[in-house]
């Protein structure tokens, strides 16, 4: 009886619930301007419902974030009813979902097809809505889509990549088309136009980069040419031969498909700028697809972080560094002359793998402290220079600099003159091969005194380059350091006495209390 009753009650409940559930209109996914706002709770539902789900994993504070969001909104309006659904996931709020989808980092835009959560297609970071629309269109098409009759076209196109192929069904056309898909912001065309072929004096199977109909560069297709090779060609030749680093170009430089960068650090207002820049530019022509040439103006305060990263001080410019972006090892041009041949040789030795990387510290040389002038390296500099018992006078030099080398005999003489003094060390260090962190500006050669007793103090010598004047300076600074030290000692003594008095008072108090 009780079982029957229970059944009846349950049945009633079901009856009440069922029609309500069936008639309930499904709640639409939240959206803003046609872009779905997805979270952990509704991502799977959106995935199931869309044949193509284009998702922007947005990090609101990232540089591209705002621009991509705007492009998404505009594209969403165009894509209404197209079978492509636009969506965004706020990675900063929905960390769990991003992690689950392995989308915590770049690429920020991915296309999920037919509900497959695991193998989304990477979408190039769009500049604007047109980038997205072109990318989707090219993805869905084939090389034949790019066939163009040039007799109809105007010369207005700024940049145009044209493929001349003997056979449109060839592998070359496929590679060409695959590159076009990945570069939606560049116009691509394929032609059979014989007039054009004779106009540009080319044979078949060549890709031309045109700038307002003028040939920037030609690329001959070969059986081993890959999509990546072609993309590298187009991306690099779209850029200036030497690109100045700034807020606008930084992204282009860092994402360029060339893993080797040559950086010229120079002050644009300096009088040698024109000549050095022109040598750098003509060297750059020979390494276009191998090394990306970048100029960094050291006077620009916004470049401060870049200088810090490469440990370049404004006073050290001009100088040239090569950096391998794969392992982040840097190389320093061992010259204070900057002509085209020297820069080219430097790049070539680097590419050949025979250049010496710039190191934190050279290895310690055997017998480094047995000569009158001690030969320091990065790892011994601090210990010797900041020794509280000895005053160190250090020559920081560049081995390839005439001006630096001219000081060597003077330094030997100075070392001999003070050889008998136990409290003085004369030393030198190669500032090009050792990273010297003395948080101070200055150029090389530099003569720096590190007075004993006063370990934090560093004094630059800028007087006459004679032994007599150097010794006078040394003695004066040592006296000064002693005086400072005496005063410091007195202050310290007073402080200690005051502390003792305080303690004694406390003692008396506790005795009184007993
Ligand atoms: C994320 O990566 C992990 C480990 O590689 C993998 O097991 C998981 O299936 C991935 N998630 C997705 C959504 O592809
Ligand atoms: C294209 O030509 C214009 C001048 O017409 C020039 O300013 C621009 O730098 C050129 N672009 C490339 C990539 O060569
Ligand atoms: C850059 O670094 C990578 C990884 O260590 C290495 O394979 C490559 O040869 C280096 N390139 C040059 C030009 O030294
Ligand atoms: C330089 O030394 C200071 C203090 O020792 C340290 O805080 C700083 O990080 C160092 N800078 C570099 C670039 O190593
Ligand atoms: C502590 O007490 C002793 C004797 O009780 C006295 O001589 C001394 O001055 C006191 N010291 C202080 C700091 O009050």
UniProtKB/TrEMBL annotation:
Residues 18-141 form the Thioredoxin domain. It comes from the Eukaryota. Keywords: Signal. PROSITE patterns: THIOREDOXIN_2 (PS51352). GO terms for cellular component: endoplasmic reticulum. Belongs to the protein disulfide isomerase family. This is Thioredoxin domain-containing protein.
């Amino acid at each position: 009886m009780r079982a029957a009753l229970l059944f009846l009650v349950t049945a009633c409940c079901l009856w009440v619930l069922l029609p309500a559930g069936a008639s309930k209109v499904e709640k639409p996914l939240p959206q803003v301007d046609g872009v779905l706002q997805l979270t952990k709770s509704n991502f799977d539902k959106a995935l199931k419902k869309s044949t193509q789900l284009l998702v922007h994993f947005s990090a609101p504070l990232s540089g591209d974030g705002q621009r991509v969001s705007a492009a998404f909104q505009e594209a969403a309006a165009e894509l209404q009813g197209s079978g492509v659904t636009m969506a965004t996931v706020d990675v900063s709020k929905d960390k769990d979902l991003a992690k689950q989808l392995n989308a915590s980092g770049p690429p920020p835009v991915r296309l999920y097809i037919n509900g497959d959560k695991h193998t989304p297609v990477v979408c190039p970071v769009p500049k604007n809505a047109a980038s997205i629309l072109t990318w989707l269109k090219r993805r869905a098409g084939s090389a034949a889509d790019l066939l163009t009759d040039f007799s109809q076209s105007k010369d207005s196109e700024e940049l145009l990549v044209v493929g001349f192929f003997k056979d449109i069904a060839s592998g070359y056309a496929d590679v060409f088309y695959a590159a076009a898909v990945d570069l939606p912001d560049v116009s691509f065309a394929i032609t059979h136009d014989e007039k054009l072929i004779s106009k540009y004096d080319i044979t078949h199977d060549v890709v031309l980069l045109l700038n307002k109909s003028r040939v920037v560069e030609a690329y001959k297709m070969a059986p081993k040419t890959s999509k990546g090779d072609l993309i590298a060609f187009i991306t690099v030749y779209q850029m200036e031969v030497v690109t100045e680093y700034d807020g606008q170009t930084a992204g282009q430089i860092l994402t360029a498909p060339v893993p080797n960068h040559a950086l010229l650090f120079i002050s644009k207002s300096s009088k040698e700028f024109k000549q050095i820049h022109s040598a750098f530019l003509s060297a750059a022509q020979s390494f276009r697809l191998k090394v990306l040439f970048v100029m960094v103006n050291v006077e620009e305060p916004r470049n401060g972080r870049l200088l810090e990263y490469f440990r370049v001080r404004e006073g050290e410019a001009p100088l040239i560094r090569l950096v391998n972006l794969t392992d982040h090892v840097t190389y320093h041009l061992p010259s204070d002359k900057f002509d085209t041949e020297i820069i080219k040789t430097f790049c070539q030795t680097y590419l050949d793998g025979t250049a010496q990387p710039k190191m934190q510290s050279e290895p310690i040389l055997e017998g480094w402290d047995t000569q009158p002038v001690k030969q320091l390296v990065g790892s011994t500099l601090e210990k010797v220079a900041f020794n509280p018992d000895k005053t160190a006078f250090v020559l920081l030099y560049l081995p390839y600099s005439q001006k630096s080398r001219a000081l060597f005999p003077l330094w030997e003489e100075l070392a001999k003159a003070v050889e008998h003094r136990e409290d003085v060390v004369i030393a030198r260090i190669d500032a090009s091969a050792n990273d010297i962190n003395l948080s101070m500006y200055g150029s090389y050669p530099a003569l720096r005194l590190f007075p004993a007793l006063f370990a934090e103090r560093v004094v630059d010598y800028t007087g006459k380059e004679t032994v007599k004047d150097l010794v006078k300076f040394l003695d004066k600074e040592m006296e000064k350091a002693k005086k400072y030290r005496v005063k410091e000692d007195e202050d310290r003594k007073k402080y200690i006495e005051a502390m003792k008095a305080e303690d004694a008072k406390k003692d008396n108090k506790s005795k009184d209390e007993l």
